[in-house]
Write a structure and sequence with these properties.
single chain, Rossmann fold, four-stranded mixed beta sheet, 13 strands
């Protein structure tokens, strides 16, 4: 799948007109209206896709006080931000935003278009560190452009993947959803692997306050060695991690987390587990 990226045209080049903006706002409100609303939303999403074939596949929008360049096809995160931003992992992002304050350090592993990274950076108002890890080169360019659009919300972008040991691996690109790109021997994109402890050391972090991990079945390789070997000062108060691919896990990192003082606060409908320490 070709990855369209326009990181040169100024923001607003792909601006939606007033009718389309009202359409997007209506879709967002309808989706929040329960089961029936979600059924109606599905029809509206189909209509939006049909219309976009005749117009542009890219749209510049403002969401949550931030600027975004979004791509209508091939990435679920972009589609959610465009049409149903209020329903985009609301419990998970709220749990992180509630736990951070100026001076905090947040690591976003599998940053995608920057939904978590930029919102946390905005909450920190520049008084903290946000490290966004995104190994896919095309997605990383999109992320970097969104970060550039929001210069007052700085993030540091790392182009590696995170695993249980340093080295190299291959990424298998998600054919219909870039968010499902994952480590696989069948992949065609070479990528460096770094451990979470290595990143913390290289970035000179004295503590980590929150971590989000969305790496399509590689969560155990990211978190198990960190929870096993990491010093107490680095263990964050909150961890949000995807568990939808748990059949791919080689170790029980959730048990490791329990042994380090974490308790499960809940599991969100989107397939994430929220852990809190202390």
């Amino acid at each position: 799948m070709d990855i369209p990226v326009d990181d040169t045209s100024p923001f607003g080049h792909y601006g939606a007109g007033p009718v389309r903006r009202r359409f997007h706002a209506s879709a967002n409100e309808i989706y929040k209206a329960g089961w029936i609303g979600r059924r109606v939303f599905g029809r509206l999403r189909w209509l939006d896709r049909l219309c976009s074939r005749r117009t542009r596949e890219i749209v510049d929008v403002e969401r949550f006080g931030l600027r975004w360049r979004l791509y209508r096809r091939g990435n679920v995160s972009d589609a959610r931000l465009l049409l149903r931003p209020d329903a985009f992992e609301p419990v998970e992002i709220a749990s992180i935003l509630d736990s951070v304050a100026p001076g905090c350090n947040f690591i976003d592993i599998g940053a995608n278009c920057g939904f978590y990274s930029l919102r946390v950076s905005r909450a920190l108002a520049g008084a903290g560190n946000v490290i966004a890890v995104e190994p896919h080169p095309g997605m990383r360019r999109r992320l970097a452009f969104n970060a550039k659009l929001n210069g007052a919300c700085p993030i540091r972008i790392l182009g590696c993947a995170v695993g249980d040991r340093p080295g190299t691996a291959r990424l298998l690109q998600g054919e219909r959803n870039l968010g499902q790109t994952r480590i696989s021997d069948r992949g065609s994109i070479d990528v460096e692997i770094r451990t979470l402890l290595q990143i913390a050391s290289d970035e000179k972090l004295e503590r980590i306050d929150a971590i989000k991990v969305d790496v399509e079945g590689f969560e155990d390789r990211v978190l198990d060695p960190f929870l096993r070997d990491g010093p107490d000062r680095l263990l964050p108060r909150i961890i949000v991690a995807e568990h939808s691919w748990s059949d791919n896990w080689q170790t029980d990192w959730l048990a490791q987390a329990t042994g380090r003082g974490y308790r499960e606060q809940g599991r969100a409908r989107q397939g994430n587990v929220i852990l809190v320490r202390g």
